[in-house]
Amino acid sequence: MARISTYPLDGTIVATDKLLGTEEGSLVTKNFKVEDLTSYCNTQAVTEHADNAAAIAAGLAINTRYRTGDLLKIVH
Q: Which percentage of the chain shows pLDDT scores above 70?
């Protein structure tokens, strides 16, 4: 396998593109489709908090998603 930096950049991402990753537990290297990753992210629970301070107080880490009503936000 060549160094990652030698591969060309793909400016157009489509659902069937594949990403390289490591499976938790077995540490086996695997391919993941963008559409599967998107589906996984969209099914994860997004907790509701009044604001960023409340999300942090609840124990959410920086860059974690939360929502305030219908607005999706990221802890900063």
A: 100
